[in-house]
Amino acid sequence: MNALTIPSAFLPATTPEMLLALAEYESRVIGQEPVEVPTEHVLHAGMYARTIAMPVGMVLSGALIKRPTLVTVTGSAAVLVGQEWLKLDGYNVVPGDAGRKALFVSYSPVIITTVFPTEAKTVEEAEAELTDDADRLLSRRQNANTVLITEEQQCRQL
Q: Which domains does the chain have, with CATH numbers?
């Protein structure tokens, strides 16, 4: 069987100890000017897809995610899972648990798409459903967003 993804890749909930360590890391880097990260948002057919593009050499500490999601990573990156680093190369579709906070390091340009089911009608509603830290998201602090909100019927007619 030829696999397109790494079947064993999984993003579990983050332990309380690791959440403390990530908070300490964030407190050390909080004053640095953030890299502009374009974010594409799509709300379609009861799903929200959020895509970001990371340049080479970026370290990204994500928000604490409160929903289970599918995460698609394209490129070469490492993500901290528990106390281990998971190396991802190429195209990977990774299930992610609720209660996780990820630290990503990009070794090439990396595209990350997070998808979850929702009844949200706006990006702001979807982001608030995704995390209680929505106000800390780069998409809320930078003007680098692209938004597509459809009705399911629109796509059927194309």
A: 16-136 (2.60.120.10)
pLDDT band at residue 8, thresholds of 50, 70 and 90? low
Q: Considering the entire predicted model, what is its pTM?
A: 0.87
Residues 6+ positions from 134 with CB-CB distance below 8 Å = 63, 124, 127, 128, 140
Q: Enumerate long-range contacts of 33-36, CB under 8 Å, 24 or more apart.
A: 34/138, 34/141, 34/142, 36/142, 36/144
Helix (H) or strand (E) holding 124: helix 123-130
For 80-116, how does the pLDDT look when each residue is reduced to its tens digit (9 = 90+)? Answer: 887 889 999 999 999 999 999 999 999 999 999 999 9
Q: Which two tokens stand for residue 143?
A: 């003007």
What is the rounded radius of gyration, in angstroms, for the C-alpha atoms of the chain?
16
Max Cα distance, the chain (Å): 51
Q: How far is CA 9 from the centre of its chain?
A: 15
Give the separation between CA 48 and CA 55, rounded to whole angstroms.
23
Residues present in the chain in total: 158
Residues 85, 82: Cα–Cα separation, whole Å = 8
Q: How many whole angstroms separate alpha carbon 21 and alpha carbon 9?
A: 22
